[in-house]
């Protein structure tokens, strides 16, 4: 039986997983606009798949995850990154420490209160004028339905998952005080490996449909370029 890290990486090694990851990264890049030299946080980094992607683009990346086994695999994959054990609802970083914070398939494993906490924390740790990008499977997509079916069949990974809509993600960041919130959709490829060779056709055909039929939703939230005073309510240093 595969360990957690091995099972995680097996998905990305499979043709369907690798193709989906490539499509998702292209969508995330279009929103995040990552630039070489920027400081980036990969919250919920798992085995470092997105961490490696950001590093390859020339960013200085810190990966965070609560699972030591996944973090060990991430450290082995991305030698140039920093990895920290922790959770997205209480990030162990100073205010404004990053230019960009990324969280991919993290919010689906958080309940409502935890999502609000993670939203505030992600905004807190990016600098004034910085941005947060969250990527999730859309609630009404075939991909989310497939994972709900796996949960019904006993999958421990997806049993607690609660998928969000673009509107819910946008609302979270607006309520948290983001200066601007933008959403985009992608991954029109159905979750069946036999169709992987048709991914390019699926994406081109699906793009005009917007949210309809899209499996992946990405939301960018920009932090106001006005910094909060050091003693503002909710401000917290990295070591408190």
Structural commentary:
With 240 residues, the chain is an alpha/beta fold. It has one domain: 3-Layer(aba) Sandwich (Rossmann fold). The protein is built from 8 helices and 7 strands; from the N terminus they run ααβαβαββαβααβαβ. A 7-stranded mixed beta sheet has the order 3-2-1-4-5-7-6, sandwiched between helices. Strand 4, helix 5 and strand 5 form a beta-alpha-beta unit. Helix 1 crosses helix 2. The protein is globular and about 50 Å long. The termini are far apart. The C terminus is likely disordered.
List the helices and strands and how they pair.
Blueprint: H1 4-13, H2 15-32, E1 39-43, H3 49-56, E2 60-65, H4 68-77, E3 82-85, E4 98-104, H5 112-125, E5 126-137, H6 142-152, H7 166-175, E6 180-186, H8 199-206, E7 216-222
Parallel strand pairs: 1-2, 1-4, 2-3, 4-5
Antiparallel strand pairs: 5-7, 6-7
Helix pairs in contact: 1-2
Largest sheet, strands/sense/barrel: 7 strands, mixed
Shape: globular
Strand order of the largest sheet: 3-2-1-4-5-7-6
Class from secondary-structure proportions: alpha/beta
Mean pLDDT: 91
Helix content: 25-40%
> Which segments are poorly predicted (pLDDT under 50) over 5 or more consecutive residues?
228-240
**Cα distance spanning the termini:** 40 Å
Classified by CATH, the class is Alpha Beta
In CATH, the architecture is: 3-Layer(aba) Sandwich
Number of domains: 1
Extended strand count: 7
Query: What is the CATH third-level topology name?
Result: Rossmann fold
Number of helices: 8
The topology string of helices and strands comes to: HHEHEHEEHEHHEHE
Percent of residues in beta strands: 15-25%
Query: What's the quaternary structure here?
Result: single chain
Gyration radius from CA atoms, angstroms = 17 Å
